[in-house]
Amino acid sequence: xxxxxDPTIWLPFVFAGLMGVSILIYVVLDGFDLxxxxxxxxxxxxxxxRMIASIGPFWDANETWLVLAVGLLLVAFPVAHGAILTAxxxxxxxxxxxxxxxxxxxxxxAKAPAPHKRLWNxxxxxxxxxxSLSQGFMLGMYIMGLxxxxxxxxxxxxxxxxxxxxxxxxxxxxxxHKTDEYLQRKAVDWAKGGIWGLVLGIGLIxxxxxxxxxxxxxxxxxxxEALYLSPLPILSAVLVVWLWWMLRRMPFxxxxxxxxxxxxxSSLWVLAFIGxxxxxxxxxxxxxxxxxxxxxxxxSLFIILIGTCFVLPTILAYTVLAYxxxxxxxxxxxxx
Length: 336
Hints:
The protein is 78% helix and 1% strand. It has 14 helices and two strands, in the order αααααααααααααββα. The chain has helices spanning 7-38, 45-55, 59-62, 64-76, 78-87, 89-109, 114-143, 150-178, 181-212, 214-221, 225-229, 231-249, 260-280, 298-325; strands spanning 283-285, 289-290. It has a two-stranded antiparallel sheet with strand order 1-2.
């Protein structure tokens, strides 16, 4: 039987891939600007202005990938969308409030009178923290099968903390790349602390994931399946060692290489995401609904795919353009 020619097989797979890529891009891109907000309490007022300037041209465009991912989940896997959003209603609501607070604070802090600027800086930090923690909590609940138990909630609280630390780490590597002098050196110190939180978070999730189900345990530890997964922890360990080596030696004499820690940190997130995708495939709701069971009708998916072929390249092109035009060190953020 030629399953590749069967639209009930390849269309759900394509949309699962598109949704996964959208989530991955969002986690990396919005992850670093959320991390910049989480780091606000460790910076002085002038440094906060520079940090805001480093994400100014990008932060709202980064969130487009979250909208795309949720939109694809809704139209391509409506049953799964209902199950996930029903189970995670409270953390999703907190995340949305946090995103709104960030957006409002970002605009108002640049225009408010000096005495009110601290209020909006604190609001920006609070919104970033709420968003990061809620996303980490949702990740933990998703891994544990969306079941609200005391043990699952405790695990999700741990993943909330570690994901937030992970965001602060990739945010610190972004600040290393976009700034110089004293703030850059301070960001190096932030990254040195944050990398261990990220490693602990990845370790915690990696330890818990194979215990969720016998199916995932077999995919990790049976032969030859374990062979397919083995490059991920090996490459991750290499990246962690390389990151630590770079951070110990920064700032480099040639500052043009300041982007390397951010690139390595992003690669570490990619490897972690691939490991999760490998573990949970073909389920979109862990151990409950596969992508094939929850997919929309092939006729609907095909029409949506045509639209996606126009929308996705447009978003990607705009993202590439923004990061190309505003490459280099951050300058003063101005609205006049």
